[in-house]
């Protein structure tokens, strides 16, 4: 080191923290107190969360009526595809023992319907649904064109298999009085779906817009006649269509069908009493051995009645607590010799 | 005569070489500037020996001299052996002028030698280019891969197999599903054209799943690994602590693919000369008449280490002083000035009793041509202290004693040999007194002392010798004897008779030498340091603490090698036994190996009651060696001849077994190719990672064949560096390269691999679980964009930052605790077991990632009653959970959080959300409706409390077990690394870490250095005057001219080989 030629210092590596691997750094260290604190805190949090979730789920009132078997005659009728034009109605009375407070939502629920199959999910045309080009049916195999080579609107397997039962809830305070429970089909879709993803083409008359296309083979009516009462709820902007087009992740799923308008008798929700569902049975589920039901449910801020998350949190919290006690026990019983590096 | 490049030198050319030039090709020496066609060469590049060797031309060709015309007309024809790799053999015949002359090794100068002390010489090229013996010795270059790489290849194959299995399972499941369930679903989803059977659908599904799940086969892993290695290589290049100011060379990683292997080295094969030693001898200390000179005492009278700060004795006033000489004790100068007769006698002896040749260079400076660097150091010391050796003739020696010229008459020269281990001169001083000056190995010389020597002096000097030896110095005892005229004349007559005798001449001469070299008066002792490279001892000590076995492979002599072994602390007196294998044929070698093994196990058995554990481990390979742990330290010394036999296939295993049980192995007199063979042997049969370090061309083959080759750079000759994978200027940097850079590289690479496999399993296997719910239809869980970006954008940088910057303990602690190196050698941080752990961890995480959202999304609706259990929301929830879980995991894995880690980890998460919101934005959907169908999804899902609860629970469920396991592992079974980390943290709080240097303790066995670097025969050269210039014409009347002109050279050669044998026989008796 005594000789240090000046001109050669150019080859000396820079003395920067990065190059000398001396960057200031924090070292992560699992200290006993730290780990135990984290464990206890996590445990407490999970337990509390679990209890809150369970309580909130229990506060939700939910009624599910599976009408696959109840409307057995209709189911039988629908098994044969040739009976598509025959109407079949079915009425299901039920008794609501407790008042359903607050907003009440009505869902339809399908069992064993695979909306998550690879080919099924792909079988739609986003360009068509966005109203850019009603003729854009490239992605819709195997429901692109009808037999006479007319493009289908809306094309694809998803749209074709749209749930098309009509469910009407009636409140029967006395055996003779049947009050139709007022239900809204608006605001059951995501805002982005309704206003960004789905658009009708820009024509004044819907029927003109869809000129040159044909209805999906399973549909009884063309797309511009989906809602006869509300002309705005037609075409690609039909709420039921939009809800259906948002495919479910699992073969059992429920989709929002209607929500309660809180007027007259129903300001506080659904009062206890006799009700009945009047169902126009169109959607065939027995063909794929599926089932369908109708669900009435209230909501809390954590969503619908699902105990899973609450239970999962409770279990996790409990396990974490148990783990933290065992860790503490192990840590305290272990005899440790302090470490001094050998000099 | 014209200048040519080396590449243009062809066989048959006659080339001229000048002093200090490298020899360009294997040459037949024709003539030289020296008398009798002599020529001195240094063969350090070939065999590591540094003393000069003599080559001489045939007398017929040496007459050609420097006469260009006659040389140009030289038309001799050489018939010789085919190119081979034997450095010490050459046979051939020169036919010239109708006569034939046989050629041997003495007439050949090999490529790679350096011409010394010879101003020019002419040679005819015999072999050039790749045919030269040097090039024949360099092994083939092989493509080097690290063991992690090889393991990776296996693992990737396994993963691929695993992938195919998953594909088959899912494919079959799909066939069944299509048959059972899908069939009823056909109204909603027809078959596509051309695929109308469930079997065909299963087949297609198989391929779809292979494509979807291919992310388990980590293709980006290889790229990332290379990036990490590149980063580590740059760290090596940038390390200031591996920068050598002396030659202004920084360390250099010449290969960027071997870094983590540096953390797994088990065997280091080191060259000696230029690697361990500096090849410089310095006169350090002396003991004259019972007083030590050369030690520095501080004010309190304590001995202190010689440091550079101390002012060396100033010799510059003396015009003849050698500038490079440094001595630190003023008291010796004072004693000289005071005229202490013993001190004067001591220095006079140093100036007289040697074989050095003086020469004046053009500037009029006195230059010594030394044959052994030991002697050079002694004579230079005397010169600087005022006793300047000026000139010599065959009969006289002229020295300048404190300014006055004194000429001594040289009466007899009792030359050195390895049995006598001493040399003496008999001189008559100008006053007419006859004196015998002798220097030699202390053990030998002490027996020859006269009884009148004071007891005190003997014991003091003896103590001093032990002390010197304890410091690793080479010692010599110095003694003289006054002779009376009559006695000497009688003796001289007998010597002449003996010389004239025909039979038993050598024995008779030896007897006469014994006769006169007795009743000596002790003067003192000298201590010469064979200067090791800086920090060699510390490096060797800490590497052996790290359980790295160091083998010294040198071309040098056995004695020198052993001495260096002692000096480096590789051999110590505490060792239980030292085996020397020096057989000359296969039977002897086998016998010696057997004996050595017997004694090794014999000793074990003798104290088998609890002291020794002799456990047998399972056989390594089919021709494997039983590895037994033997407590106690053993050393093995083997020379090149024996090694050639030991490397034969039937003895190979015995040799290897023995060698691996020894703490230290020294192979001396080995050829470059043998070095490579030894390395190959260990590499192939031990499954161990080897490193070879060397500086010269003779190490190239070894460097190439070892797993990692390290070259010492910054000196002459680049061959070693060019063949190496890493290079630096000093041996001591090996410690930092292995213990810091190597360890870190291995540690980081292993952590990186574990994490990478974990991440890919966690990421990919979710598709497998989802398959059970989507009819095995090869539907992916995540959005296509997420799959594309996950490995490249969302998770690559944090793990790269960890792979490049992570440290468990800092560099100082890595150096201070060499035991930290052992996990690498045992391959503990990444192996098949670890891989399975990572895989299971990944599978567990993927399961948690899938099950919790599945359970939560089953039958659920959002806060506003709208449904959130759609496929797209599920995908976004899963993807977000995954990114958060793997980010938390990398945060737990990163043990050294630099700014860069922070930026990368937080940045990755931020990037994920930015990209997510961008891709789910309205604008991008209106531009590309079919490419980005997830419009509004991020906003919608991530504003739901329920979704965040799911993400949180997933994270807790997948991370908490890891935290618990890690904490318990560290708490219950802390590794050394954990303990040091903890300690380091405590230290940091308490005070800044102080730098500690391992105390250097040396063995205290006494070894005499004289025997080591010396060759017999130079005495004859001097007394015969053969090597003197024409200006000192040899006197015909001298008794030594009895020999004819070439006999001394033959003697020289004969005796060189004898020395080795005699010494080894001497040692084998001890076995």
From TrEMBL, chain A:
Chief localization: membrane
Keywords on record: Glycoprotein, Membrane, Transmembrane, Transmembrane helix
Sequence intervals crossing the membrane: 28-55, 307-332
Locations listed in the record: Membrane
Source species, domain of life: Eukaryota
Keyword Methyltransferase annotated: no
Family, as annotated: Belongs to the CDC50/LEM3 family.
Listed name of the protein: Cell cycle control protein
Automatic annotation (TrEMBL), chain B:
Keyword Metal-binding among record annotations: yes
Database matches in CDD domains: P-type_ATPase_APLT_Dnf-like
EC number: 7.6.2.1
Bias (Basic residues) ranges: 986-1005
Keyword field: ATP-binding, Magnesium, Membrane, Metal-binding, Nucleotide-binding, Translocase, Transmembrane, Transmembrane helix
Keyword DNA-binding: no
Pfam families registered for this protein in UniProt: Cation_ATPase, PhoLip_ATPase_C
Membrane topology listed for this record: Multi-pass membrane protein
PROSITE patterns attached to this UniProt entry: ATPASE_E1_E2
Membrane-traversing stretches: 155-177, 197-223, 752-773, 785-805, 835-854, 874-892, 899-919, 947-968
Record's signal peptide: none
Cofactors that this protein relies on: Mg(2+)
P-type ATPase C-terminal domain span: 721-975
InterPro entries: ATPase_P-typ_cyto_dom_N (IPR023299), ATPase_P-typ_P_site (IPR018303), ATPase_P-typ_TM_dom_sf (IPR023298), ATPase_P-typ_transduc_dom_A_sf (IPR008250), HAD-like_sf (IPR036412), HAD_sf (IPR023214), P-type_ATPase_IV (IPR006539), P_typ_ATPase (IPR001757)
EC class name: translocase
PANTHER family for the chain: PHOSPHOLIPID-TRANSPORTING ATPASE IM-RELATED, PROBABLE PHOSPHOLIPID-TRANSPORTING ATPASE
UniProt-recorded name of the protein: Phospholipid-transporting ATPase
Record organism: Galeopterus variegatus
